[in-house]
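Researcher: Here's the sequence for the chain we discussed earlier.
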Amino acid sequence: MVNKVTTATVIGLNAYKVSVETDVLNGLPGFTIVGLPDTSINEARDRVRSAIKNSGYTFPAKKVVINLAPADLKKEGSNFDLPVAVGLLAEEGVLDEDNIKDYAFVGELSLDGSVRGVSGVLPLVTGLKDSGCRKIIVPAVNACEAALAGEDVEIYGAEHLTDVVNHFTDNPIKPTVVDLENYLAEFGDEDYPYDFKDVKGQQKAKKALEIAAAGAHNILMTGSPGSGKTLMAKCFASILPPLDLKEALELTKIYSVSNLLSSDEPLMTKRPFRAVHHTASASGIIGGGSSPKPGEITLAHRGVLFLDEMVEFPRNVLETLRQPLEDGEIVIARAKHSVKYPAKFILLGAMNPCPCGYLGDKEKQCTCSDFQINRYKSRLSGPLLDRIDLQIDVPRLTSEELLNIKPSQETSKDIRARVVRARKIQAARYENEGILTNSELTPKLIKKYCKLDDECVQLLKLAAVKYQLSGRLYDRTLKLARTIADLENSQDIKQNHIMQALQYRMFNPSN
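Model: Thanks. This is the structure I predict for it:
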C-alpha cells in the first residue's frame, strides 16, 4: 500500500502542493527518490535513514521508492526531509495514515533526528493553506514565521522527529499563535542611528528627500565630496512611513525565500534600506542564478535601494534597472521556467559632478577636462535619468553652516509625521485602485487623479516646449506635483506645485 504525505515546494514566491508518495517493495535494500528532485532532496536519503534510526525507530530493510508528485514540477530545498520520514514511519506502522492525512509537513532533518529550520516557510505555509491544508507541522524555529499565515491554519512547531510521532500518540504539540497587529506595533517603531537633525544646512535637499519619501519617488543627489549626500541618504530611512500589515507580510515572504529572515524577528517590521557597492554584478542587483533568487531590487521592495557613487557602477548594471523602475517587478527567465519578483523600490542615488568631484564648487577648482566630464556624466543614460523624478544639486556647506554646532530644529520624527500623513492621503485615495503611492500611478489613473485647471495646463504646455518634455517625463512631473500637493494637504494640484516639481526635475547632470 502506498502512503501519501502532503508538503510543498517554492518557485519564486509561490508555493505548489506536493504529494510525497512512499512505497516499500520486496527486493534488495535501496532508497530511490523520483519526481524531479534537486541535489539537496536526493541527499535526503542518507539524512532520513540516520534520523529514523537515531530516533529509535526501524528503517525498512527493503526497497524504498519515494515519488514527489506532480512529477513534472521541479522540487528544490531540504524541506522534504520531514515528509519523507513521516511517510516511511507510516509504512512501518509507527504512524497511522488516517491520522496524518489531514496534515502537511515541512522541515529538514539532522542525523540525530532534530528538525532544522528551512527557508521560505511563510510562502510554503501560505501556499498549503490556499490549497486547503489547515494543519501544518514545521520546524520549531520557523513556527512563529509560519503562524503569520493567519488564524485559519494551525501551526505546530516540532524540535525532533520524536515530537512529530508523539503528536499523533500521547503528547500533542501546542499550536503556535502570533498576534500580528500587536507584533507589528511593538517592533515597527524603532530608533534609527541617523537623524536629519544632525544634518547641517541642505534645506533644499532635505525637502526633496521628504517629497521622495512621501510619494515613493526616485531621487538623485549630485554634489562635491563632503557635502552630506551619504549622510542624508542614511537619514532617509528614518523618515520612511511604517509598514502596514500587507506590506510586512509581502516583505517577509521575500526575505524568507532569500534565507535572510531572523528567527528572533520572524516578521519584517522596518522598510528595507539596501546599500549596494558599485562592484555588484547585474545578477546580484536584479536577481538570477540557475534557480533564480531575489536580487537587491527585490530585497529593497517597498523600501530603498541606495547606490552611492552611482556613476561608478558599470553601465550595463545601471541599464538593468530601467525596466524594474518602470514596471515595479522583474521577470527572470530561464530555459525551463521563469519567475516574477516584485520590485517597487525607491532608487536613491548619489554622485559627484565630475571625476575630481569639484565641478561647480565655490571653494575648490575643478581639474577635469571637458572630455573627462562628459564621459563621466554619460555613464547615466537619458532613459535611466528619465525615470528619476527628483534630480538635485547638493552644494558644499558654507563655513557658517559647517561651524554651526547647534542642531537643526527639525528632527526626522517631525519630517516623518508629514510623510505618514501624505501616505495616508494616498492610501485613502487609491484604496480601490490596487496601488499605494503616487509613484505607482498609471497613465489612466493620472488622468483621473491629477486633474489640472486651465492655468496649470498652460504652465505645463510652456514647460513642455521649453524643456522638451518626453511623455514619461510629463507624467512623472504630474505624479511629483500630486505628492507635493498631498504634503501641503491640498486636494487640487496648483501652479506652485507644478513649478516645484519642474524645479526639482529640471536639474540634469548631463548638461
